[in-house]
Design brief:
Layout lengths: L14 H34 L1 H9 L7 H14 L1
Helix pairs in contact: 1-2, 1-3
Length: about 80
């Protein structure tokens, strides 16, 4: 006895589901980037000290922290 079962190809996801997944993924990536930012802040406090970092911030001194930007880009690439 054989069964005649036709296998239907899967249908693509509708647009609303794709947009919802994009929003969900962007929320996850944002949360991960916040964690990376806190890790970077902890590293800067360890290197410079909290008082020195506060002085630098009050004097509008900006740290061109290329390592932080690299970490963020690597986290985004690792997520996707």
């Amino acid at each position: 006895m054989t069964l005649n079962v036709q296998i239907m190809p899967p249908t693509p996801a509708p647009l609303w589901r794709r947009l919802a997944s994009m929003v969900y993924d962007s929320l996850l990536v944002t949360a991960i980037m916040v964690v990376v930012g806190f890790i970077n802040l902890g590293i800067q406090i360890t290197i410079y000290g909290a008082a020195q970092l506060r002085k630098m911030t009050d004097q509008d001194y900006t740290l061109d922290n290329h390592i932080f930007y690299l970490m963020v880009i690597l986290v985004i690439f690792a997520f996707f």
